[in-house]
C-alpha cells in the first residue's frame, strides 16, 4: 500500500498544471480532493462521507483566492473547517469562499459535505487574484460571511432578484484591508463599478451536464465578458440588487464583475443559476412545465388562432429603457401606441380589420405553441400582463433568449400572418365593407328620408309639434270623464 500511495503521488505531481478551463473527473485517493489553480474538477459528494480538499503550489503573487462549487439543485456545504459556523461556511447550489492568504502561504484546505440523501454531482474551481484586484464581497454588511463573494438569488412567478455584497479594494498579503465606510473619494472602494451579466442556457436544456458545462463560461472574468450579456453597470451608490423577468423552465446564469477603473483590474463573483422553477416540487416542477397533456389546450388555441387569422374579418366586432421603469410613462406610451394604430387606419376600416385578424390570429398560434414548446415570443404579451399584475415588475429587466425555436416560430408567425391577410383581401374584394360604419349608416338614412317623399318617415312632424302632441295626450289622462246622457236643455 505504501508503494502504491507513492506511485499515485508521483503521477499527480507529474500532471501538467494548466490554468484556464481544463477538467478532471473523480476523487483522489485517501479521501483527499486535490485541486489546481484555474482547473475545473467534477466529483461526487455523499452524505455519509464528507471530503477534505487541498490546493497546493499557490503563487506568491496571489493575494487572495476564491474557491467555488456548483451543483444543479442539490445543496452542498463548503467550510473553512469541519466545524460548521455561520460566518465560516456556506450552503447552496452555487457557493464560494474567499481565502485571504497569509505571507508565505502556498497551500489551502477546506471541508466539503452534503446533507442530501442522494449523491450530489459537483463541479468546483479555485481562482487566484493579485493585490491590485478588487475583493468581491469584501465590504459585506448583510450576509453571514465576513467576506462574501456569493450571489444570492430569489425568484417568483413574476421576477428573479439577485443580491450581492459590495466589494473592497485589493491589498497585499500581511496588510490590513482599507476601511469600507470611511471616505467616499477616489482612494476608497466607492470608485468600484459592478457589471451585471446574464447568460442563457440552450432552450429546453434541463440536464445537469449542460448546466455544469456552461457554468465554466461564467466563472472567470474573460469568459464572462466573451460569453454573457452585460445588462447594467452599478456604481457604489446604487443598491447591490437587480431584478429580472422570471423565465420558467429556461436556465439562466448570473454573475457580477467588479471593476477598479483606476487600476484597470477586475474580479468575478461566484455565478448563480436558476430555472425559475423547482426540480423537487411534486406539482409544477421544471420537468412538467411543458407536458404532453398541454396538447389539448394547443388543439383548441391554435385552431382558434388559425380561424381568426384566415376568416376573422367577416366576424370582426366594431424594456429596458430606464425611462420606462416609471409606470406612468410606460402605460401612457403603451396606451398611445395602442390607440395610434386604429387612428391611422380609421379611414380604411376594412384594412384595419384584416390586419388585426391576420396578426392577432397568427400570434394566437404562437401563444398556443408556448404551452407545448418553449418560445420567447410569448413574452411579448406575458411581460405586459406581469407589469399590470405585479407592482414591483417595473424594476425588472426583461431580457429573453432568442434561440432555434424562436426563429422557427417567428417564421411560422410571419407565414400565417401574410397568408391570412392575403386570403382575406382576396375574399373581400368586391364585397361591401364589414362592419358598416355607424356614422355612414346614420348619414345615409337621413339623406334617404329627406329625398324620399314616399317614405312615411318623411312626413314626421317637427319636434315642436310632436312635443305638443305628447303634452296633449298627457293632459287627456287627467281630464274627468263626462257623464253619459242628455246634457242640453229641453226646447219648448
Quick description:
This protein is α+β, with helices and mostly antiparallel strands. It has 10 helices and 19 strands.
Helix content: 25-40%
Q: Over all CA atoms, what is the radius of gyration?
A: 36 Å
What's the helix count?
10
- List the strand order in the largest sheet: 1-3-10-5-8
Strand portion: 15-25%
Low-confidence stretches at least 5 residues in length (pLDDT < 50)? 1-22, 24-29, 290-298
Topology:
Layout: H1 2-14, E1 23-25, E2 32-35, E3 40-45, E4 51-55, E5 64-70, E6 76-79, E7 89-92, E8 94-100, E9 108-113, E10 120-129, E11 151-155, E12 159-164, E13 193-200, H2 208-215, H3 221-227, E14 229-235, E15 241-245, E16 252-260, E17 265-268, E18 272-274, H4 295-311, H5 327-344, H6 349-370, H7 379-389, E19 396-397, H8 404-428, H9 438-451, H10 463-478
Parallel strand pairs: 1-3, 2-4, 15-19
Antiparallel strand pairs: 3-10, 4-9, 5-8, 5-10, 6-7, 6-9, 11-12, 12-15, 13-14, 13-16, 16-17, 16-18
Helix pairs in contact: 4-6, 4-8, 6-8
Give an overview of the whole structure.
- 31% of the residues lie in helices and 21% in strands.
- By secondary structure, it is of the alpha+beta class.
- The chain has a 5-stranded mixed sheet. A 5-stranded mixed sheet has the order 2-4-9-6-7, with no helix packed on it.
- Helix 4 (295-311) packs antiparallel against helix 6, helix 4 (295-311) packs parallel to helix 8 and helix 6 (349-370) packs antiparallel against helix 8.
- The model is unreliable at 1-22, 24-29 and 290-298 (pLDDT under 50).
Please name the defining characteristics of this protein.
single chain, 492 residues, alpha+beta, 5-stranded mixed beta sheet, 10 helices, disordered N terminus
